[in-house]
């Protein structure tokens, strides 16, 4: 009983000092974190942050230069094949077969993992319904939209009921409806006690995760819950709404007190040292420069605000 309790308390994924270099670049540097059963853990950062390299090491595809990792209780450095039946790894380009139907792709992956026919039928029906794809079982995978291909990839990856799922930017380029379906499936898996590690370049998706690791240039910047990450900023955030956002940026980017500035569709999101103090200063500056604006008001910080500020965003411009 004691051994079972200790096993239950162990993280489903544990990375300890993972390090990987390629010629001329340190892709991942001494990365440590853990993921619990029944948790969605997000690796968040821009291209080149080290997300894919980390997932490939955890999947046992790529050996680290240093450090160790366990997945579902298996040491993936010493025994990369051991965790095969306990995890699923869905890379950015999942290996679907365009000339096979949806059902045939699912059957192929079920056979790889030794899933019996009755279980495959029950599981695929359940997953396709959750993905909103029940009516497409006979359609060739090559005829599916990008979002539907990603959902089919997830169905195939889940057909053998893995305990751990590694997802590499699964919603990149996916339409909003498919993205919503994708996340709904992930939350249902969490309720079943599955551990999910997903990477994304979309900072807004960090809000959907239970905990988040913010990566930049292979290094861990922060690791905590989204709420705790936003609470630790210690700075103010201003939303400046204006009809000409680019003129607005030019007028404010060199103002005192700004640590990062992000261009949005209707204005700017600005991280400042003291929100109450800077509002009247910015209003006066804009009026003096004859730059029209509708409002300057305090806003709740986002994960994007924290990340841009942490990497020295300055006058960053994000669409």
Gist?
33% of the residues lie in helices and 27% in strands. With 319 residues, the chain is α/β, with parallel strands linked by helices.
How would you explain this protein's 3D organization?
The protein has a 6-stranded mixed sheet with strand order 6-7-8-3-9-10, sandwiched between helices. It has a 4-stranded antiparallel sheet with strand order 2-1-4-5, covered by helices on one side. It has 2 domains: 2-230, Rossmann fold; 234-310, Alpha-Beta Plaits (2-Layer Sandwich). With 319 residues, the protein is α/β, with parallel strands linked by helices. It has 10 helices and 14 strands. Helix 5 runs parallel beside helix 6.
| Amount of helix | 25-40%
Domains, number = 2
- What would the average pLDDT be, to the nearest integer? 89
Strands side by side in the biggest sheet: 6-7-8-3-9-10
Find the count of extended strands (DSSP E, 2+ residues).
14
Coarse structural class: alpha/beta
Low-confidence stretches: 1-7, 314-319
CATH superfamily of the largest domain: P-loop containing nucleotide triphosphate hydrolases
* Terminal Cα span: 54 Å
Radius of gyration: 23 Å
What is the CATH T-level topology of the largest domain?
Rossmann fold
How do the helices and strands follow one another from N- to C-terminus?
Answer: HEEEHEEEHHHEHEEEHEHEEHEH
The portion of residues forming beta strands comes to 25-35%
Per CATH, the architecture of the largest domain is: 3-Layer(aba) Sandwich
Number of helices: 10
CATH C-level class of the largest domain is Alpha Beta
Shape category:
globular
Described by strand count, sense and barrel closure, the largest sheet is: 6 strands, mixed
């Amino acid at each position: 009983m004691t051994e079972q309790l200790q096993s239950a308390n162990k993280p489903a994924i544990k990375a300890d000092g993972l390090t990987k270099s390629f010629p001329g670049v340190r892709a991942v540097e001494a990365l440590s974190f853990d993921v619990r059963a029944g948790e969605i853990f997000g690796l968040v950062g821009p291209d080149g942050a080290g997300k894919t390299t980390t997932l490939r090491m955890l999947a046992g595809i790529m050996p680290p230069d240093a450090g160790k990792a366990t997945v579902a209780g298996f040491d993936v450095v010493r025994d990369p094949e051991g965790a095969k039946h306990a995890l699923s790894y869905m890379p950015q380009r999942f290996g679907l077969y365009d000339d096979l139907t949806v059902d045939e792709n699912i059957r192929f992956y079920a056979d790889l993992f030794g899933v019996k026919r009755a279980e495959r039928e029950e599981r695929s029906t359940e997953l396709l319904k959750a993905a909103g794809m029940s009516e497409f079982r006979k359609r060739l995978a090559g005829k599916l939209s990008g979002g539907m291909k990603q959902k089919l990839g997830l169905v195939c990856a889940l057909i053998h009921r893995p305990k751990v799922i590694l997802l590499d930017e699964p919603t990149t380029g996916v339409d909003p409806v498919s993205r919503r379906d994708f996340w709904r499936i992930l939350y249902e898996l969490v309720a079943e006690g599955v551990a999910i590690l997903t990477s994304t370049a979309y900072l807004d998706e960090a809000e959907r995760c239970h905990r988040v690791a913010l990566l930049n240039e292979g290094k861990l910047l922060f690791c905590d819950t989204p709420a705790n990450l936003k609470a630790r900023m210690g700075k103010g955030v201003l939303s400046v709404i204006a009809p000409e956002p680019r003129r607005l940026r030019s007028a404010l980017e060199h103002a005192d007190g700004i640590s990062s500035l992000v261009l949005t569709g209707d204005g700017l999101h600005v991280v400042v040292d003291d929100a109450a103090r800077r509002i009247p200063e910015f209003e006066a500056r804009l009026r003096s420069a004859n730059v029209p604006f509708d409002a300057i008001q305090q806003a709740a910080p986002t994960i994007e605000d924290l990340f841009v500020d942490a990497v020295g965003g300055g006058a960053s411009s994000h669409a």
